Amino acid sequence: MGVFLLLLLSAGMLNAQEFGEDKGLIWSEQKGLEYRLKAGLNVGGTAPLPLPAEIRKIEGYNPLLSISIEGNVVKQIAPKWAILTGVRLENKGMSTRARVKNYRIEIDNRNDDGTTSRITGVFTGHVKTKVRNSYISIPLLVACKPAPRWEIKMGPYLSFLTGGTFNGNAFDGYIRENDPTGEKIEVTSAVYDFSAELRKVNWGIGLGGEWRAYRHLNIYTDLAWGLNPVFKKNFDSMAFHLYPIYANIGFGYVF
Amino acid sequence: MYKGIGSSVFCLLLCSCIRPEAPNAEADIIACTLQSEYIKNDPLITNNKVTFMALSRIDRTRLAPQFEISPGATIDPPGGTVRDFSRPQTYRVRSEDGKWEKTYTLTVDTSDLSVRYHFEQYETIDQKYHAFYELIPVPGGASARQDVWASANPGFTLTGMGSTPEQFPTVSIPDGQSGRGVLLQTRSTGIFGSLLAKPIAAGNFFIGSFDASKVMSNHLEATRFGLPFGKKPLAIRGFYTYKAGPVFTNSRSEEIPGRKDEGLIYAVFYETDETVNYLNGTNIGVKPGNIQHPNILGRAELAPFEETEEWRYFEIPFVYDRAVDPEKLKAYKYNFTIVCSSGKWGDLFEGAAGSRLCIDEVEVVCE
């Protein structure tokens, strides 16, 4: 909660500094422009869709603390319609624990002479995954106001990765080399780290709803559905693609 | 609070999409039994071989092994089929999902463990590493193959570090003391190994079998030392060369100045019973406080272990703590092993990458 108060306060300061005696706001209003500052939490997953048969059970999930801060410009284009864009600084993270069966994993091993060799196999056991990615995202949404206090939005967004970790460990199970008939090797715990393989640019579709609780305060929930996989094109250490699908819930200040 | 709700909603969403379990993809022989009083020990089952060691009195022409296989899998011919095991027979196991098939060779070996090893025969497994075997003359002029010596090479494949046999810890070399010989070398295991705090792999070579499945979980259980032996060993002899690697490191890859790597050659004679089928890396050695496994009757160890560039002859007498029971000897209730390693502390992953031990022309002197 403290975070929100702080944000609201800073929003107030911004208001006072940049728009002086509301001259700017009045000018903006005449042009059909509105400014918003939003803060929220991302809850979701970087997950395969649909879940492959290799994943047998989700044994645990933690959304971690994934904060987003967003500044929006809204331009009225018709009585009930507007377009919206802005900049969003956000974290998308989660940690999961799953029981898997014949889950393909590949691990690159660096040799003394600098060459790389790859260990390929299928893993049956438990896998813990931790994702913590930060993005600068630019949404471009069409907003519709079916009722005075309500607004629904939809449109694409583009995300640029500014920092990311994707790692975890495989434990309490066994690897079979190459395929299910390969040499069986028991695994107590083996770590993996695919952070370097994360894609720098993601895009997807945003869908959201906003409700004006007070004159300056909105409560909103947005869904950002990633449409390209989080890993680079040539990444084949996993047998399936992972997509970032996150819901964002929070408050917005309307100037 | 809402985070809690959010996560449980998400979890629910995900869990509701769990797909039906795919049919089993594995095609393993998990266990195998032969109804015969002439079997010396439990069969050795690897990923594609099943080996029984039997007394020569057994009638190998009419045996019907029973199998336990992966759930849902099928085996052809089925368990209980009477077959002639005068020569090895093959079995095809097909996985439940029908996509995978594996062929096992089942051998009933009635030859006795050899007492002379020349290390001339080897094969290259998966085009990657060497595995050794001996050809034992059998009556009638032919020779029988014995897979007596094992190494940790099958475990080293997992590090992905070896692409040619020469890069593996245990390899056949052309310039042995006489004919070919065996080179054991301590190798780095790369990033993968160091993540597991197993930065090096000492080359090892021993009479017994290697259970690769234990490499990562409990590596000391991977080395199963010893095979049934019907004679009382008095000494082992042979030839070796040894050169320690330059930099001694611990399991965290930290250099330990002043420590020097050492090789290892020893032999153990021990009793098998209902609870002890074989000794492994956890109990073959002399434990701290000088307590050795109660089943061990005698051992022979090359000490002090000296470096030598030229082939050096060794003869190590057995020292017995207990008497050997002739009846048990006749029934093959004793196991015998010879263990060689390029690093004495290889089991702790301490040693020097580059340490090299060569072994050739090993002989067991028996009573």
Calculate Rg of chain A over CA atoms.
22 Å
Which spans of chain A of ≥5 residues are poorly predicted at pLDDT below 50? 1-14
What is the β-strand count of chain B? 29
Largest sheet properties of chain A? 8 strands, antiparallel, barrel
Q: Specify the CATH class of the largest domain in chain B.
A: Mainly Beta
What is the average per-residue confidence, as pLDDT of chain A, rounded to a whole number?
84
Structural class of chain A: mainly beta
Beta-strand portion of chain A reads: over 45%
What is the succession of H and E elements of chain A?
Answer: HHEEEEEEEEEE
CATH superfamily of the largest domain in chain B: BT2081, beta-jelly-roll domain
Mean pLDDT of chain B: 89
Description:
The complex is a heterodimer of chains A (255) and B (367). Chain A is 10% helix and 65% strand. Chain A is mainly beta and 255 residues long. In chain A, β4 and β5 form a beta hairpin. Chain B has two domains: 23-110, Immunoglobulin-like (Sandwich); 111-366, BT2081, beta-jelly-roll domain (Jelly Rolls), CATH 2.60.120.890. Helix content of chain B is 8%, strand content 39%. Chain B contains four helices and 29 strands. In chain B, strands 12, 17, 18, 19, 22, 23, 24, 26 and 27 form a nine-stranded antiparallel beta sheet that branches. In chain B, strands 8, 13, 14, 20, 25 and 29 form a six-stranded antiparallel beta sheet that branches. Chain B has a five-stranded mixed beta sheet with strand order 2-3-7-6-5, with no helix packed on it. The model of chain B has no long low-confidence stretch (mean pLDDT 89). The interface between A and B is large, with 47 and 45 residues.
Brief digest:
The complex is a heterodimer of chains A (255) and B (367). With 255 residues, chain A is mainly β.
Keywords:
heterodimer, A: 255 residues, mainly beta, eight-stranded antiparallel barrel, 10% helix, disordered N terminus, B: 367 residues, Jelly Rolls, nine-stranded antiparallel beta sheet, six-stranded antiparallel beta sheet, 8% helix
